[in-house]
Amino acid sequence: MTFLAASLARVKPSATIAVTDKARALKAAGRNVIGLGAGEPDFDTPGNIKLAAIRAIEAGKTKYTDVGGIPELKEAIIAKFQRENELSYKPNQIIVGTGGKQVLYNALMATINPGDEVIIPAPYWVSSPEMVALAGGESVAIVCTAEHGFKLQPADLEKAITPKTKWIILNSPSNPTGAAYTRAELKAITDVLVKHPHVWVMTDDMYEHLVYDDFVFTTPAQIEPKLYNRTLTVNGVSKAYCMTGWRIGYAGGPAELIKAMQTIQSQSTSNPSSISQWASVEALNGPQDFIPANNKVFKERRDLVVGMLNQAKGIDCPRPEGAFYVYPSCAGTIGKTAPSGKVIANDEDFVTELLEAEGVAVVQGSAFGLGPAFRISYATKTSDLEDACKRIQRFCGNLR
Description:
Elements: H1 15-28, E1 34-35, H2 47-58, H3 71-85, E2 94-97, H4 100-111, E3 117-122, H5 127-134, E4 138-143, H6 154-160, E5 165-171, H7 183-194, E6 200-204, H8 220-223, E7 231-236, E8 249-252, H9 255-266, H10 274-285, H11 290-309, E9 325-326, H12 347-358, E10 360-361, E11 363-364, E12 374-377, H13 382-397
Parallel strand pairs: 1-10, 3-4, 3-5, 5-6, 6-7
Antiparallel strand pairs: 2-8, 7-8, 9-12, 11-12
């Protein structure tokens, strides 16, 4: 009889963390490896935010805080939602967690009963179905193809909804594809959801500010006020503010749900880091001018990577609207033989052989629910991206 919980059998380790760890190990062994697996900006946290944290330490703001966040941060979050998303919340409708992941996890743990279904458009963030499984629910993946821009189609959503559906998780711009829903596309989705009052909406808006080519971001409760009372709008400071390691996520939603999530948090981690919270107050309230400056670099990198990957034999790379990922198809390489003599049967073989032959670490699309493809994070220095793309071109050119 195993000592470990049976529920663990329902959960797979994170593929993105696994590929990052493998790249690290190869680097430590002396290999020249370019890791394109990690989803975090290579830019440093802005100086004013770091200074706010230092000042908080010096002022002795190093004690336990309210479980769901300090009042000052809740007020900053309320102001952000009003300013940027036209959403009004009170402090009892806001929760701050240790990263967006914890906020999503708390919501699922607080609401899912055995047999409850959660609709997740695929390709999806690797953690979404695993968190549903840990909470005892069932994920219902809806495949969203490249032909539709990797976006959920209203008719497919309508078909997937059953009496057991409790949530839909919407992530725009998307990890892993970078796909982002226009206002019209989102309105078509919310029109379906309005007809099904038992279905709640969980948004993952973590990449809200990372959009390009004059794209305008919107979020479901902003588009459709009828969904306000059953929408949890989740966001955080990790990506746009270059604060991945600070571990602060937050959400606005119905007070009853927020209270239940806080109960879960109070018996697991309790409050997020006090220092990180004070830094986040400055992030949300302080200057925002570095975001478009960073985005200009991200856009240049996106265009570089898309252009170079589309010159690789057997690769087809769509141009995404946001985030800092591309999600190219490697269907044209399946069935070919790698330099090692291995026949590439699927996208996992492709990424494994690419890492072995050329020292480029990417994540297989099957980990995100749709292959044969792979995800590249272009949140790394431009010279490394150029080198990596040349290696991918060479690898694909050497397939026979």
